[in-house]
């Protein structure tokens, strides 16, 4: 590439009023949406932290009680905020981030931010990612559509090529200059905003800096793809008007129409599993299992398995033992139906990654959510982490009951003066349950998960560069 | 370089517009209909409307299926209880704990009762998903221990699809149609200006207003027929053939609103042309205008709305609910508070306070009453916030015609935020009504447990399954009509404003 040409093109661009307008619009839009998102994240993150600690204290300081009552008292657990969620909240606003952990129930995650958001939220672009994914391509195409077409229309292309400049070199210089400017316009504000978020919000074990850098690089690549498309169109069009019309049509197609249409297609290929059906199936199975007759039969089977005829002969507590049997049945039911449900959703989510073949915006959305740790995989991981924690509490409480049988402990027997004392759990038992810690997907695993959409993004970029190279080589005086 | 200079200072002697306009209009319409771009745009829009109508049909069908499944679950729970009655009226050795006993009021209420509240779809639900994909239309009422919010129930579904938004008729008409209109009308006049044809036209004794009127009115007529007609066909496909008279009127006003929306965008195209800056600038301006109106202004409205109506904290609410839970036992939840509750609610049982205040039934009712009272202020704050947010959103939607039309469509579809907020209030009240319905029955059983037969283990004290309060909600066509009418007035005013500005610009040919 000719360095002089690049310098000249850069100088021309710096003086271009359109570049200044694009810079102003981008900075204004991203800064405003970022400020609002950061304010909310800081508030919620602080509140989560305080309530998380309060919950732990409440659990440890609860009065002595039947361990099963403690299991019902339960705790609330919270999905930590990803600092990059300020840039791209991903699916987080549409799924809950706090779960009530209690006996018997696989509770839904609640507190979906979108529930309390304004009804207008989804009409506009209200996140930095929305602006980067929808508005930036438009601005980039408005910058790039005239790169060759305007010169061709004015006749200056003939003049330039007549002076001996090789078309490919000229293209390389112009494209590079535009790309440098675009990269600066995109990455500089993102780096500043991302750094603010990463500094002010806790890392949560997400390895936030490599994620942030990858996030910025992919968004810069994305802008580069649309720049490449604008250049290709500009090389093909005879007039600036035709180039603009084609660029805008491409933007509408790739950024507005196809992303929504792909939902219809994916829903057709892999329909979203019904949550209502899943819950109904679980309820049916639970009801069929939880009958008086079923209970009596299971008690009998348990006594037989222990080689005794009555509960009094057992070394363990019958009530606790039956609870454990019942809970393990419930765990298996949850594993089966919720396992199928979440696997179905994850299958569908993977298809969204492949749909990046249809539009770079779709590919970027997948990559962006994964790097921001606001993707579906992280949410599912949290849901199951919560469920495993719930099982840990239930099993710990039940085991305490089993180990302290009511019938053969002298302390618990009735006397002439007192009714039988019930076994009660105390702080020593509550302390056996560790605090809930969520370990999100690591940055390296996230990178692997993003491989397909990332490759598709690179494919889009390669395609535009190759097309531009071929078209530039064909330019004749 | 030679150029034809148009003298704009000297008034042009023009031929009567009234004579020429019909002929020019006919000519322009013919010309428009012969252009491949016209058909390309309309076919793309029709296909989109077809897909959206299909999705609308699917959405309505899903609503009905969900309601049918909910009803089946409700009937199944009652059938289970009736079967238990039949089984347990015989003496038995089986011990039946309360939580397995569907024949008792308390057991049925807390363990078996399945109750739903449905926000019924309107006849026009298929046109706009609105908030229905994030706020449930069907709420399962929970009487278990863990119900903190009334609105925790939701269908997880595909969060990615929810985030991207539905491909519904409202999306096609509100977001895609303007782009199609820009493609059709965005370079009219300005394209002719670039190609030099405008000079030839301007050389004729004809006013720029007349030329612009003919060109843009032709597009408006053809587009209105194509788009409103396409939308009407799509509506018919969804459900419109079953419209009652009042919903037919709503549909008519929505058609007016859509027509005015089409006129607004064509007027904007005319305005862009009237600046006489050429096709490239006109196109760029129009796409920037589209971005401003559909993306930036709604985002601004959202930010303003969030600033003036900050949401109460759900996390703080959770914290307070847990404090109430702890406080209940710290303040004497085992006997004192249930005893006080019993005396307050059932003075006739005051003499048996010590005996009854430890029963699980009294403790449970007293505890829920304690929780509800402790959290009342926060619950009301959430309800008020939802209503205030929906009302403010309606006012702020005046910032953009996109929001006004979207609001009209959503209100007609019954998927708007305001309806949902009032629905959730009704759901909360309905839950309380069921709770109160059972209360005297549950307390009566706790106070006077009686066996039906010697050796009968089940409580067998509840059979009033058909008397359990049912949730009733209606579809209100009046609000939909008002929203559609207001939308028409707003869009008409906007059209008038843009047309006047365009007319002022078009008083003379460019120099």
The total count of helices of chain A amounts to 18
Task: State mean pLDDT of chain A (0 to 100 scale).
Answer: 89
Please state roughly what percent of the residues of chain A sit in beta strands, choosing from under 5%, 5-15%, 15-25%, 25-35%, 35-45% or over 45%: under 5%
Low-confidence stretches of chain B: 1-8
Structural class of chain A: mainly alpha
Name the helix and strand elements of chain A from N-terminus to C-terminus, one letter apiece.
Answer: HHHEEHHHHHHHHHHHHHHH
Helix/sheet category of chain B: mainly alpha
What is the strand arrangement across the widest sheet of chain B?
1-2
Count the beta strands of chain A. Answer: 2
Biggest sheet descriptor of chain A: 2 strands, antiparallel
**Radius of gyration of chain B in whole Å, from Cα?**
32 Å
Coarse morphology of chain A: elongated
Q: How widely separated are the two ends of chain B? A: 16 Å
* Tally of DSSP β-strands of chain B: 2
Residue share in helix of chain A: over 70%
| Residue windows where pLDDT falls under 50 for at least 5 positions of chain A | none
Describe the largest sheet of chain B. 2 strands, antiparallel
Describe the SSE topology.
The complex is a heterodimer of chains A (477) and B (511).
Chain A: H1 3-15, H2 17-61, H3 67-73, E1 75-78, E2 98-101, H4 113-116, H5 128-144, H6 146-154, H7 156-162, H8 167-200, H9 208-236, H10 240-269, H11 275-289, H12 292-305, H13 318-354, H14 360-372, H15 376-403, H16 427-430, H17 443-449, H18 451-473
Antiparallel strand pairs in A: 1-2
Helix pairs in contact in A: 1-8, 2-5, 2-8, 3-15, 5-9, 5-10, 6-9, 6-10, 8-9, 8-18, 9-10, 9-14, 9-18, 11-13, 13-15, 14-18
Chain B: H1 17-34, H2 36-88, H3 105-112, E1 115-118, E2 138-141, H4 159-164, H5 169-185, H6 190-195, H7 197-202, H8 208-238, H9 245-274, H10 279-308, H11 314-330, H12 336-345, H13 353-356, H14 360-396, H15 401-413, H16 417-447, H17 477-505
Antiparallel strand pairs in B: 1-2
Helix pairs in contact in B: 1-8, 2-5, 2-8, 5-8, 5-9, 5-10, 8-9, 9-10, 9-15, 9-17, 10-14, 11-14, 12-14, 14-16, 15-17
